[in-house]
Write a structure and sequence with these properties.
mainly alpha, Arc Repressor Mutant, subunit A, 64% helix
């Protein structure tokens, strides 16, 4: 990885200039996210984060008191990034199906742009299950953002008549399964991720399974097909 905040003689600096503070903090979060995603919480140290970010270990403590604080900040930053993009993706769309498609396409774009986002959120569940202090550190980070976003999406589908309100709990469980699968099962392979997104929409739109003796539904026209 490239380094930042180096002095002219190539030595790492211990504390950045005030003008670089926000950029340096974000650099720490970006590097830490990639390391936590690849190594997990336990195997990632502040020293490794500092080395990859081009800083001294002492500089890390200028921004964060301990590794757990970095992990919590990475989790918060990842949640913010994902759900700001999801909120923007569904804005102004008039149907549940269109909003769901927009969310899935946005997730695919995010995965193409930076796979470490999904990989971190997937590994984060494992780390939280293994370590109660990790679970506690992220418990109050943007509390229930995933749940609230998809509950709102389901409520919108109920309001448009596309979802039966009596099946809210079924839809909620389905979305937890879908989103977890996109993160944990296919985020490491763009082609598989693309196929998963297309498969989910095929099921929702009734194009993937047919009743015995029935003709296959017509595929979407080329102009309706999502960009790959």
């Amino acid at each position: 990885m490239s380094t930042i905040n180096l002095m002219a003689d190539g030595q790492r600096i211990g504390r950045p200039l005030a003008a670089d503070s926000a950029r340096t903090r974000q650099r720490i979060l970006d590097v830490a996210r990639q390391l936590f995603a690849a190594r997990g919480y336990e195997s990632t140290s502040n020293r490794i984060i500092a080395e990859e970010a081009g800083l001294t270990t002492g500089a890390i403590y200028y921004y964060f008191d301990k590794k757990l604080d970095i992990f919590a900040a990475v989790h918060d930053d990842a949640q913010r990034t994902v759900y700001e993009r999801f909120d923007a993706a569904v804005e102004g769309l008039d149907t549940f199906v269109d909003r769901l498609r927009a969310v899935l396409e946005c997730a695919h774009d995010l995965n193409n742009e930076d796979p470490s986002l999904a990989q971190f959120l997937g590994s984060c569940r494992v780390d939280a299950a293994r370590d109660a202090t990790v679970a506690a550190a992220i418990a109050n980070n943007r509390p229930g953002r995933h749940r609230s976003f998809f509950n709102d999406l389901i409520s919108f589908g109920i309001s448009t008549g596309e979802i039966d309100e009596s099946q809210r709990d079924i839809h909620s469980a389905l979305f937890r399964t879908i989103t977890t699968g996109l993160v944990d099962a296919v985020s490491g392979d763009r082609a598989h991720h693309r196929n998963a997104v297309d498969g989910i929409m095929g099921l929702v739109e009734g194009r993937l399974v047919r009743a015995p003796g029935r003709a296959w539904p017509q595929p979407a026209s080329p102009q309706e097909q999502p960009a790959g």
